[in-house]
Amino acid sequence: MKNILIGGKWVDTSNYIDIINPYNGDIIDKVSKASSDHLREAVESALRGSKVMRGLTRYRRYEILSNTAELMMERKDEFAKTMALESGKPLSFSKGEVSRAYETVVLAAEEAKRLGGEVIPFDAAPTSSDKYCFYIRVPVGIVLSITPFNFPLNLVCHKIGPAIAAGNSIIHKPASKTPLTSLLLGEILLEAGLPKEALNIVICSSENAETYLVKNPLIRKISFTGSKVVGERIALNAGLKKLSMELGSNSGVIIDENTDITKAVAAVKVGAFGYSGQVCIHCQRAYIHESVYDEFKKKIIDAANSLVIGDPLEMRTDIGPMIDEKEIIRIQSWLKEAESEGAKILCGGQREGMVFKPTVVENVTEDMKIVKDETFAPTLSLIPFTDFKDAVSKLNNSVYGLQAGIFTDNVKNAYYAIDTLDVGGVMINDIPTFRIDLMPYGGMKSSGYGREGPRYAVEEMTEIKCVRFHL
């Protein structure tokens, strides 16, 4: 049994949540669930911790994060197995996430030493020749981190790491389905030297999180990754807080004529079906030039059918389970609805236990749920085009705008897409699912606002304080 972390102590609340292996339904562990009183204690602890963190030198923050990164790698196999068990992410992908999380924490450590300010040339104004000014960045205070199930380590590090680098304290609420990885990270952070009240990890209901955390005026910053619906609710209830929102997408890719189809297929296979499509930048739409449509279709179907379905604890497994039964039922209903409207399932469309088989669909329309909404499942809709600008227009025709991929050898087409697409990132000759952890990552439109990547997150987790000398 695992307990929540408040004020450096592991608290048994006598009220527990079962953590379920989504592949076989086994209970992995039990985790203490926080009550409203526990959440109030967490805020009080974080308030005290924020004062301690503000007093730490930048070098000390760097040391704590560097120690954390090294300790994570010492327990990398434990992290990977924990993620595979609680999230169903295949072990090979879980190991990759540990490596990425290590890099994220190292990057955050480096930013702790870079955090500074800027001199403002007041003598650029006609009446201020004898005045000097500069600004510094100061911690916001308490950061509330809320993360989803799908990247239970790296997304947590993208919030906690920059918050520490910036000199803040943190209250972290992990997804209730995957809290074990966060609790393991909490152990390591304390061991690495983080002040005991600087980190509080609570597992609680959404209602209590909203009432006692989101609405709490003592919390000055919320960093949220999750659904558009929940993000909008947080924004409505947060009050005067700084917010970062990464809210998912129905990301797409354009396969232009005269491009390397084999290379494109190899990338799209990962973007469309990796981790069963349960990725915010999952590649669920493919707009393919009619001259290469048949070739791409055949190769992507072959690629989908070649993927190994099975137990996420086996290294050979490519596709593991969906996170729970209701998500399988949902995507089945969306596909059935699309079929009734004329869509054709070319492969997949069926379940094998808790695994949903990689699915390729054609004859779709823009108003079908599997095209316009976020499927968060291993689906790929194929849509032919004749005119590149028309393909860009269709890719843009979405309430979302996280990332897009463009495979083309035509530089003019590439720049047209870059200039026209309303998305946070355009990946040329790659899939929208591409991300490295030092880049600015975030979306436009209903995909949210704000940017992650340690350098950019640190800026979002600090305030600018302007200093003026009148000499």
Description of the molecule:
This protein has 471 residues and is of the alpha/beta class. The chain contains 15 helices and 24 strands. The strands form seven sheets. It has a seven-stranded mixed sheet with strand order 14-17-18-13-12-20-21, sandwiched between helices. The radius of gyration is 23 Å and the shape is globular. The mean pLDDT is 97.
Summed up:
This protein has 471 residues and is an alpha/beta fold. Helix content is 40%, strand content 22%. The chain has two domains: 4-247 and 447-470, 3-Layer(aba) Sandwich (Aldehyde Dehydrogenase, Chain A, domain 1), CATH 3.40.605.10; 252-436, Aldehyde Dehydrogenase, Chain A, domain 2.
Sequence-ordered SSE layout with sheet pairings:
Elements: E1 4-6, E2 9-11, E3 16-20, E4 27-32, H1 36-55, H2 58-74, H3 76-87, H4 91-114, E5 117-120, E6 131-139, E7 142-146, H5 154-165, E8 169-173, H6 180-191, E9 199-201, H7 206-214, E10 221-225, H8 228-237, E11 242-246, E12 252-255, H9 261-273, E13 285-289, H10 293-306, H11 325-340, E14 344-347, E15 351-352, E16 355-356, E17 359-362, H12 369-372, E18 379-385, H13 388-396, E19 400-401, E20 403-407, H14 411-420, E21 425-428, E22 444-445, E23 448-449, H15 454-460, E24 462-470
Helix pairs in contact: 1-7, 2-4, 2-6, 3-4, 4-5, 5-15, 9-10, 13-14
